[in-house]
Amino acid sequence: MAQTISLPQAGARAKSALSTALPPILVALLALSFWYLLSITVYAGKGYLLPGPREVADAFVENGATIMAATLTTLKEAMLGYLTAIGLGVLIAAILSQSRVLERSFYPYAVLLQTVPVVAIAPLIVLWFGYNDLSVIVISLIISLFPIINNTLLGLRSTSRTLVELFAMHHTSRIISFWKLRLPGALPSMMAGLKISAGLSVIGAIVGEFIIGSGNSQGGLGVQIIFAQGRMYTALLFAEVICATLLGFVFFSVVSLLGHFLLRHWHESAAD
Amino acid sequence: MRKPPPLAAVDPAAPPPNLAKRPGAVPIALQGLSKQFGTGVQALDTINFDIAGGEFISIVGPSGCGKSTLLRIVAGLVEPTTGACERARNATAAFVFQDAALLPWRTVSRNAELLMELEGVPAPERGSRAAEALKLVGLAGFERSYPHQLSGGMRMRLSLARALALRPDLMLLDEPLAAVDELTRDVLQEELSQLWQMAGFTALLVTHNVHEAVYLSNRVVVMSARPGRILKVIQVPFPFPRSPELRSTAAFAKLTGDVSAALRQRDHI
Ligand SMILES: Nc1ncnc2c1ncn2[C@@H]1O[C@H](COP(=O)(O)OP(=O)(O)OP(=O)(O)O)[C@@H](O)[C@H]1O
Ligand SMILES: [Mg+2]
Description:
The complex is a heterodimer of chains A (about 270) and B (about 270). With about 270 residues, chain A is mainly α.
C-alpha cells in the first residue's frame, strides 16, 4: 500500500538494460577493430610501438601468473591507502566541522594536499618510509585524502538549520547530533568524494610503485610496467596498463554500488 | 472520553482562570519581548502577553511580521533582544516547524520516534506511541515509506505525529496545516482540537487561516506588520468540544469577521 509506484515489467526492464549496454559494447568493438587495422597497416612490423590486440592477448596468457600477482599487490596497496584515507579524511572533516575557526585555520592546508605534486614528493616519502609497500600505501593515501575531506566537510556543513534547531530543542549532545543528524545528512556528499578517491588511490599506488621500483620482492603493476618497458615488451606493457585501468574501474564500481546501497531509499543521486 | 473544560471567559486581556488547572500544561508569560536580528531587521516589538496552562492560542498576522520568531523565542531557540519569556524550564515542548523538517533517511515510523528517542523514551514504548500517533494523523500503512515518497500534506502530518507522540506539555505549531488540502485540513483541525482537549497541553499555533484560528482557539492574537506588535486579542467564547457545524453559525462568522477586520487594520501597504 505504501509503495504506489508501479514497477516496470520484467520484459521492459531487460529491454532497457540491453539498450543501455549495447552502445558502449558497439564502441568497444569499433575501437578494437580500429586498433587492429592500425597494427596491421601503419604499425605493421613495429609491434614494439603498437602491438595488435592478438599480441596483447598472448602476452596476457603467457604472463598470467605474474600479472595476477602484480594486480593483487597493487590492489592490496591501493585498498590500504584508500581505507586509511577514508578513516583519516572523515575524522579530519568531522573535527574541522566542529567550529568555523578550526575550519578557517586548517582548511587551506588541506587544500595543499590537493595541489602538492605527488610525483615530486614521492621520493621524499620513500626516504621516510623506505623502499617498501608502506611508502606506496602512504602515497596512495595522500593522493586520495583531499576529495574525501572536502566532500565530507561540505556535507557536514549543509545540515538544514531547522533540523539543527529541532535537535537543539531536545537538548541533544554534539555527539548524538553528529551521529543522528550531521553524518547521515553528509552521506551523499561524502559518497561523491569516496568515488573520486577510489580511482585516485589506484593511481597513487602505481605512482608509488614507479618510485620504489623493484624495492619490494614481488612488485605491483607499477613495477611490472617499468620492467616490461625495459624489456621493450610493449604487448605486456599494454596488458598491464589494461589491468591497472580495470583495477581502478572495479574500485570505483564497488564504491558506487556501496553508495547506491546506502542511499537508495532516500537520495535522488541513488534513484533508480 | 473527552473532558471539555467549562467556559468562564469574560475579560479578553487575561487568560480564563479555570484553564490554569490542567495538569502538566505550562503557563507562559511574554514580558516586553523585542527581537532585533544582527542584520538590523526588527522582527518583534514589545510583546506583552500571558498564556494560561492548557490554553489554545492562535497567532495571525501578515507574512514576515515575526510569528515564527516569536515561536522560536518561546521554544528557547532564539534569545530575545529585550524582555523575557517566562515558562517552566522542565516542561516538554514540541515544535512543528513551517517546513516539515523530517530526516529523509529515516522511514515514517522512525521519524515519528525521533523526538522520543532524543528525550530518552525507552525503545519498546517509542514504537507503540509512534504507531498510535501515526494512526491519529492518518498515516497508518505508511510506516515503512520514506519522506520523499509522501505528499507535502502527508509530510506535515508526519511532523505533527512526531510532536504528538512526545506527549508534550507545550505544543508550538508553525502553520502546520498550510500545505494540506482543505478536506484533510478540516479533519486534522478536528483531530488537533480533540487531542488538545484530551492531552491538555498548552498550544501556540501560527496560522494564516482565520477560520482555523477561531475554530481551534481560546483566544486569537492579531499581530501587525513588521516590527510585529500585538494589535488585538480576540476572545473566542464557544465551549469545547466544538462541532464542525459551529463554522456555519452567525456567531462564528461574526468572530472571523472581527479577526479579519483587525488584520486589515494596518498591514496593507
Ligand atoms: N535568523 C534570522 N536572521 C535575520 N533575520 C531573520 C532571521 N529570522 C527571521 N528574520 C527576519 O525576521 C522577520 C520575521 O521573520 P519570521 O520568520 O518570524 O516571520 P513570519 O511572521 O513567521 O513570516 P511568515 O508568515 O512568512 O512565515 C523577517 O523579516 C525575516 O527576514
Ligand atoms: Mg513563519
